[in-house]
Specification:
133 residues; two-stranded antiparallel sheet; rod-shaped
C-alpha cells in the first residue's frame, strides 16, 4: 500500500490502482441560517446575533458522504454578513382576557420603536412584581 501525500491527500492506493489518476474536486455549498431574536432595538439585536450563529467546530468531514473511494479532505463554511430586518413587535393578543392571562403575539404591522434600556428595566420590574417575584 502506498500513501499519497501530494496536496495533503490521504487516499490509500494499492497495486491495482497503478496507472489510474487521482482527482480532487472542490464543491462550494451556500449554507443559509436565519435566526430571530427579541430585543429593544436593532443595536441590541445585532449584539445578540454576534454572540450566536454557527458552531464551526461541528463543520467537519463527517458532514459528507464518502463512497466508492471518495475521501473528504477539507470542509469549511464561509461567513457573509446578512441584513437585519424588523419583523414586528410583541403585543397583547386582540382578545378580552389577553392582559389578564399574558397572551401575547407578534404584530407584524406595528411600527418599530426603540425601547431605551431604562424603560426596558422598568417594564421588567413591573412584570416581575405582577407575577410575584
Amino acid at each position: 500500500m502506498i500513501e499519497v501525500s501530494k496536496n495533503k491527500s490521504t487516499l490509500s492506493v494499492f497495486k491495482d490502482d497503478l496507472g489510474k489518476n487521482v482527482y480532487r474536486k472542490k464543491f462550494i455549498y451556500t449554507l443559509t441560517i436565519e435566526q430571530d431574536v427579541i430585543a429593544n432595538n436593532i443595536d441590541e439585536a445585532e449584539e445578540k446575533f454576534c454572540n450566536s450563529g454557527i458552531e464551526y467546530s461541528e463543520i467537519k468531514p463527517n458532514i459528507t458522504h464518502e463512497y466508492d473511494g471518495v475521501e473528504t479532505q477539507f470542509v469549511d463554511a464561509e461567513y457573509e454578513e446578512g441584513i437585519t430586518s424588523y419583523l414586528g413587535k410583541v403585543v397583547y393578543e386582540d382578545t378580552e382576557d389577553a392582559k389578564e392571562y399574558g397572551d401575547v403575539e407578534i404584530d407584524t404591522y406595528a411600527p418599530e420603536v426603540d425601547i431605551p434600556d431604562e424603560v426596558d428595566t422598568m417594564l421588567n420590574i413591573e412584570n416581575e412584581m405582577k407575577v410575584g417575584k
